[in-house]
Amino acid sequence: MNNNITMTLNADELIKMALREDISSEDVTTNSVMPEAQPGEVDLICKQDGIICGMDVYERTFKILDESTVVEKYVKDGDAVKNGQLMAKVKGDIRVLLSGERVALNYLQRMSGIATYTNQVASLLKGSKTVLLDTRKTTPNMRIFEKYAVKCGGGQNHRYNLSDGILLKDNHIGAAGSITKAIEAAKAYAPFVRKIEIETETLEQVKEAVEAGADIIMLDNMDVATMKEAVKLIDGRAKTECSGNVTKENIANIIDSGVDYVSSGALTHSAPILDISMKNLHSV
């Protein structure tokens, strides 16, 4: 998240909301032990191997509290880190370092956990043509951070939100009356530059989606044998996406199905955090 415009327009307000949640009136603990400003320094230490992500967000959290805070970074987003590695030193008013610690670490741990998990899953697809995608199954008010973390881990982003692309799922199809009617309605309504993706669960639905002119056909919760038949049936007339309970434990089974994309909600909703701590706080 090195783009300063993106940070200012999107991330700043979200970080402020998180800080307001954690400091509704004051940090009573910090104020009780540190009533006056005192310059200090603290180490940012990784306690687990993984992929780091969110260093700019971590830094910005402290700078929102006090612009004069200095974060001396020794790693950048996307870097592999090791247990015990010193990743940064944070220098500033001790009261700011204490009050911003939890929110800053929450962002860094969560984003790094997603990047690490994504990297593990993406590594299983190496050597294949299949591209790993995330989904909209993100934590509320965390999407901009979590989707960025997926890219740091080696995955790609599916649509960002409902305004970003057309994806006709089972309930949209039910509302329209059929796959054909849903695709026809989408083509009539949407700008011509929009691709139309539709969800299918059977080979009969796949055939209907191809004949109706879908640009992307999602193969939802199909077994590998059925997916292979679907890819053969589509025969390059549309891009293919596999979806449905995809995790690092079962993604290897999908590789030889021939799909173009595989999307996994687990990248954002099931990734464990990366263990990171701020240690050795002292006055300077």
Task: Offer a few descriptive terms.
six-stranded parallel beta sheet, elongated, four-stranded antiparallel beta sheet, single chain, 10 helices, Aldehyde Oxidoreductase, domain 3, 284 residues, TIM Barrel, alpha/beta
Describe this protein's structure.
The protein is an alpha/beta fold and 284 residues long. It has 2 domains: 4-117 and 272-283, Aldehyde Oxidoreductase, domain 3; 122-269, Aldolase class I (TIM Barrel). It has 10 helices and 12 strands. The chain has helices spanning 4-22, 28-33, 55-65, 94-123, 143-152, 170-176, 179-189, 203-212, 224-234, 266-269; strands spanning 39-46, 50-51, 70-73, 80-81, 86-93, 131-133, 166-168, 196-200, 216-220, 239-243, 261-263, 276-283. Strands 6-11-10-9-8-7 form a 6-stranded parallel β-sheet. Helix 8 links the parallel strand 8 and strand 9 (216-220). Helix 1 (4-22) packs across helix 3 (55-65), helix 3 packs antiparallel against helix 4 (94-123) and helix 7 packs parallel to helix 8. The longest helix is centred in the middle third of the chain and has 30 residues, at 94-123. The model has no long low-confidence stretch (mean pLDDT 95).
Range of helix content: 40-55%
Principal-axis shape equals: elongated
Q: Helical segment tally?
A: 10
Our count of domains comes out at 2
Beta-strand percentage range? 15-25%
Could you tell me how far the N terminus lies from the C terminus, measured between alpha carbons in angstroms? 30 Å
The quaternary state of the protein chains shown equals single chain
Q: Which stretches are poorly predicted, pLDDT < 50 over at least 5 residues?
A: none
